[in-house]
Amino acid sequence: MHTSSYDIIIIGGGIMGSSCAYHLIAKDDRLKIGVIELDPSYELASTGRSCSNARIQFSLRQNIEISQYTFQVFKKFAEEMTVDGTIPDVRYRPEGNLFLVDRNGETAALQSLKLQKGLGCATEWWSKDKIQARYPLYNPEQAEGGTFGPDDGHLDPFAFLMGYRKKAISLGVKYIHDEVEQIMTDEGCVAGVKTSSGQILRAKFVINCAGAWAPKIAATAGVSLPVEPVKRQVFVLDTKIKPETDLPLTILPSGLYFRTEGPYILVGKSLPEDPVGFSFSWHEQRFIDLLWPELAAFVPAFDAVKIHRGWAGLYAVNRLDGNAILGEWPELPGLYLTNGFSGHGLQQAPAVGRYISELILQQQVVLDLSIFSPQRILDNRPLSETGLV
Ligand SMILES: Cc1cc2nc3c(=O)[nH]c(=O)nc-3n(C[C@H](O)[C@H](O)[C@H](O)COP(=O)(O)OP(=O)(O)OC[C@H]3O[C@@H](n4cnc5c(N)ncnc54)[C@H](O)[C@@H]3O)c2cc1C
User: Fold this and answer.
1) Which domains occur in the chain, in start order?
2) Where are the alpha helices (DSSP H) in 210-279?
3) Which of 38, 279, 305, 356 is the most exposed place for a label (fewest CB within 10 A)?
4) Nearest CA to ligand 1 atom 3
């Protein structure tokens, strides 16, 4: 059995693990940091299977502030993550997000809009007429109007991940191709991890960045997280009638969402019956039965479509409140969590990586994210966020 020692071990090298690794090493390049990733191709990681949206449109102040920071990061990402002349390009496209609002959701939407504007965001209220004028294919009959975030948009998630990963490696972080089997403890504190290849990596700090796999690995240290892997399916459609302009990410009050993706339309919806578990199959019938009728009612021109392709990925759903769980687990010193992001983790990675690095290095935090602390899980204190998709 091979044993080695690190200052910090990160379990999972997806967007969260890589952002944490980068922020830690950028603050102190003497740190010995190991990122253990079971699949460096990231085939099943949620990061590469996301819909790549970033948006200001949340209802919780801290979620809005996280996204404000993300937008700042996009502007300097290429410069900051350049390694040996190789410049990452996350290709951020601020096409906007349009949330349709019905009578039931109007009060909450107007409250969120007020909060966003108060924080300096450019979100606008659009009347039904304005929506129809901008997007003549839409039939917003059932809606009261909508909120439009002009800065919201899409990026290349793989470039985002690789930007952090390559920069972290260039600064001295070691990525290890292995699978963490167990988080080890000693006298009530974290002591390191054991891997399936038989390595023991000792460390006083372990960060669980294992995405939808996080509850499984947390359980090896006796930590019970209210997080479940839930399969979400996304469909890419070839529509007979093509919109004249790109469609923004448009979210109906039911949660159905769609947007332009090149010459295609990408569509999805989170449903309560979505299966829990590690399955990655996707099913055309689901689109035909559950999504298509609703899509065609809102965009009658999409009555004639062909399914071009599809995919499934896992949301790490925080069953308590759908929000992130960030910080040290109160009952196990040294174990830090970046878990439970549900459907909005990609865009939260910059602020999360910075925050976790500040906590571990005991620095003043730039953005206080203690509202997401694991203590709320133990206290059963859910947060309220009405902008979950
Ligand atoms: C269909 C879909 C659409 C989404 N759309 C959006 C969106 O538009 N915007 C947004 O912000 N977010 C979106 N998300 C959510 C977002 O993708 C996730 O919140 C985010 O990618 C989580 O990153 P992560 O690093 O925590 O997890 P992952 O990217 O899953 O990375 C976890 C890594 O841990 C590794 N790992 C797991 N267990 C072990 C172990 N025992 N040992 C070693 N390594 C291990 C895995 O191989 C994996 O690479 C979407 C998700 C899905 C599924």
Assistant:
1) 3-81+156-226+320-379 (3.50.50.60), 97-152+228-318 (3.30.9.10)
2) 214-219
3) 279
4) 50
Place of tokens 């990410």: 249
At a CB cut-off of 8 Å and minimum separation 6, what does 35 contact?
9, 10, 12, 13, 17, 18, 21, 168, 173, 174, 175, 176
Per-residue buried b or exposed e for 158-173, using 16+ beta carbons within 10 Å of the residue's own CB: bbbbbbbbbbbbebeb
CB 249 within 8 A of CB 319: no
Tens of pLDDT along 175-198?
999 999 999 999 999 999 999 999
| CA 341 / ligand 1 centre spacing (Å) | 9
- 348 contacts 324 by C-beta, under 8 angstroms: yes
| Neighbour count for residue 129 (Cβ, 10 Å) | 10
Q: Which residue has the tokens 């469609």?
A: 247
| Inter-residue contact 373 to 62 (CB < 8 Å) | no
Q: Which of 9, 19, 47 to mutate to test the pocket of ligand 1 (most atoms within 8 A of CB)?
A: 47
Give 45-97 pLDDT, tens digit per residue: 999 999 999 999 999 999 999 999 999 999 999 999 999 999 999 999 999 99
102 CA distance to ligand 1 middle (Å): 31
This prediction's pTM:
0.98
Strand partners, 100: 146
Distance 178 CA to ligand 1 centre (A): 17
Tokens of 365: 């935090």
Residue 218: other Cβ atoms inside 10 A: 23
pLDDT single digits (tens) 351-376: 999 999 999 999 999 999 999 999 99
The two three-digit tokens of residue 74, written as one number: 């996009």
